[in-house]
Each structure stands twice: as C-alpha cells, then as structure tokens.
C-alpha cells in the first residue's frame, strides 16, 4: 500500500505529514510530490528524510493519492492518476460538485466514501468545521435555516497567506506601508470581507461553497443557508458565528449534551470562566471547539453558537486522512503488506 502526497511542501501538505505520522492507517511507502521549485528538498517523516519529487505529468505509482496542490493541478492530473489505478482524495474544489464524486466528512456521511469512481472530495475548510458542529443538531432538531459569519485565518490561503500576515505586520510595525499580494487588501490590523471571487448574486464563491457543500454533505437540498466569509489577521483556525432556525425547538442544555457526545466536537462553553472557542486554542487540535451556545433571540426555539476549528486539520489534512482510515476500516482500501518474518540463518 503506497501513499503519495501531491503538494507535500504546502501548508496542508505539512499537516498531512504530521497527521499521517500519528494515524493508525497501515501503509508501506510514502512518496512526496510538489512543483519543480521543491524538487530534491527533503521532509522528515517517522525519523527518515523523504525526498520531494517533481509531480509527473501522468500517472503516479501509488494506491492512494492525497492531493493538495490546488484546483488546477487536481483538475489537470487527477484523471491520469485514477486511470493509473490510484484512489484520489482531493483537497481542492475541482470535483466537489461532480456527480459520482462523494464529498465526505467521516463523522457525518462516511458511508458515502464507499461509492466512488476513483475520486473522493475533501470539503472546503469552512464547511467542514461548520458541518461537524451542526450535523448532530441537524439530526436531532432539523435545521431549517442557518446564518453564518466566518472569521477565517490567513493559512486558508496557504503558506503564502501566513507569510504575508507575518511580513506585512512587521512592515507596519516598522512604520512602512503594508503591500497586499495574496489578499485583496493589507491584512495586518484589518479584516477583509472578500474570500475567493464574487458571484453574480453578490456572494463570494467561498460563501457559496458553504451553501453548496453543506447541502451535499448533509444530503438535504432544502437547507437554507446564508454565509458572510471574512478573512482576519490570525495564523490558523477558522471561527464561525452560527445562527440556527430549527424544525423542532432545542434548548442550549440539550444542544450542549448532544454536542458533548458528538465525535470530532469539543464543547468549550463556560463564559463566566472566560471559556469559549478561540482560534489560538483550536490551533493544532483535532476537535472543533463549540461554545457560546444560547437560545436565539430571533428564531423561537433556535440556537446561536460559536465554533473554532483548525482548518488545516479538520478542514483539510485530518479529514483527508480520516477518509482513508474509514476506507481501510471498511476493507475498501488496500491494506499494507504484512511484515515479512525474517528467517534466521
Ligand atoms: P511548491 O512548494 O514546490 O511550490 P500552499 O497551498 O501552501 O500554497 O501549497 C501548495 C502546494 O502545491 C505546494 O506543495 C506546492 O509546491 C504545490 N504546487 C503548486 N503548484 C504545483 C504544480 N504545478 N505541480 C505540483 N505541485 C504544485
């Protein structure tokens, strides 16, 4: 069982290596690929230095490819990877809305991963964090309408996003003007209500991804969602303020109890003790933090909550590896070769 990471040198690639190190996934070999810029560099994995190779134009000799090099790379190369016999878990948005491509969060719709045609899509980071927290409430109380405002970290734009925050903050503190390259405007000491391109309806593509993807993952096309996505000057972990109108009324106590037992969720909700979800605490954590759970003042029996989750982990690398683990647990992914016993001479 050979695994390849395409985009191994990027922000998500880096996390994929860390998550694989800790994963129970059984595999024999790990190959790393990136652009020609990184060819020959090495990355540590389980005490070894693995060499980064140039991503080839055609097939990759692996059973499982974890792709995280952006939509255009996936779009151009994934068909050849599949034709070469690999299963692709793709972190980009290239195939998420295609019929026959499951969009999977194991805690929500893991079984969807079992019926693929070579490509399984990993959801958008904001959607993944939202879905893990809202799914248990949707199942119990039926979400009818959902209003979301996001507070998204610069690492959502990759390693270069974090670099821009750090370098431009230094410039501003030195009294120099900040220059925006990755983001539409200077990000230090600012926030930008613009992530991805604007659509004809006035929403951005990032905001519409939350709508389209949540519906597909929950298997509920009737779900009404409105999202405002905002980039903020933090390094990692996305936060979201979520208002839910429910079909059946829920109390905050019921929600807390339900979420307390939900996989992938950690309830952090003790405002008197100043405990609530925050990106600094959620960074590096596998669970999505949920707190500030309160009765909606607008929707009778509805709820307001605040979530914070590491979007490089649950919103990307961790979810991809969890999909692979789910497949292996269900016998739907090649297992590692059993260790050969050495015969003493
Ligand atoms: P490289 O580091 O060699 O540029 P991020 O999302 O953090 O910006 O990372 C993007 C990842 O995708 C990096 O590993 C980057 O490699 C890789 N990448 C970018 N363009 C290509 C390409 N054309 N072919 C293969 N990998 C690419």
Description:
Helices cover 30% and strands 21% of the residues. Helix 1 packs across helix 9, helix 4 (125-141) crosses helix 6 and helix 4 (125-141) crosses helix 9 (313-329). The longest helix has 17 residues, at 125-141. It is an alpha/beta fold. Residues 341-345 have low confidence and may be disordered. Strand 11 (265-267), helix 8 and strand 12 (288-295) form a beta-alpha-beta unit. The protein starts with a strand and ends in a 16-residue tail after the last helix. It binds adenosine-2'-5'-diphosphate (A2P).
Ions, cofactors and other bound molecules: adenosine-2'-5'-diphosphate
Describe the largest sheet: 7 strands, mixed
Structural class: alpha/beta
Mean pLDDT: 96
- Proportion of residues in helical segments: 25-40%
How far apart lie the N and C ends? 29 Å
Order of helices and strands: EHEEEEHEHEHEHHEEHEHEEH
Subunit structure: Homodimer.
Binding site for substrate: 152, 231
EC number: 1.2.1.11
Binding site for NADP(+): 9-12, 37-38, 155-156, 177, 311
